[in-house]
Design brief:
Helix content: 55-70%
Strand content: 5-15%
Shape: globular
Number of helices: 6
Order of helices and strands: HHHHHHEE
Number of strands: 2
Largest sheet: 2 strands, antiparallel
Strand order of the largest sheet: 1-2
Radius of gyration: 16 Å
Distance between the termini: 26 Å
């Protein structure tokens, strides 16, 4: 687990300020994201023709919670992927691919959370009540 996720767990009042959503929304988003991720992985596995037994390859460097927090931090603060990589102790390309994976998965889903672009062109995160920040 990353320092950022540990900090959010120890200081839930800072969640809104750091991520743009409250702790309850974050918990709901993480649970929904885990389900979406499992469904997506099952779909991929069902389409694969395996010659070699599954389970190989490198393990994930970030937990799902860390990946969601990384995505939300990028959307909230729009810092570059090099800095996100440093913050989460992964490479710039891992930070970039993590963000792109979760953004596309969440946008394709029918979850109550969504990512939209404001009039100024900045990405924002919120729930379907229409309230942001």
């Amino acid at each position: 687990m990353s320092y950022t996720w540990n900090y959010i767990q120890k200081n839930p009042k800072q969640t809104k300020r750091l991520l743009g959503i409250n702790p309850e929304q974050l918990s709901q988003l993480i649970e929904q994201a885990k389900l979406l991720h499992l469904q997506h992985q099952e779909k991929i596995q069902n389409q694969k023709v395996r010659l070699i037994k599954s389970g190989g390859g490198a393990s994930q460097k970030l937990s799902i919670e860390d990946q969601i927090v990384l995505t939300l931090i990028y959307l909230r603060h729009h810092i570059n992927f090099q800095l996100l990589g440093l913050q989460f102790q992964v490479s710039e390309s891992t930070a970039n691919s993590t963000f792109n994976y979760w953004q596309s998965l969440l946008l394709r889903s029918s979850t109550s959370f969504f990512i939209r672009t404001s009039k100024k062109g900045r990405r924002r995160v919120g729930d379907n009540s229409g309230s942001f920040d």
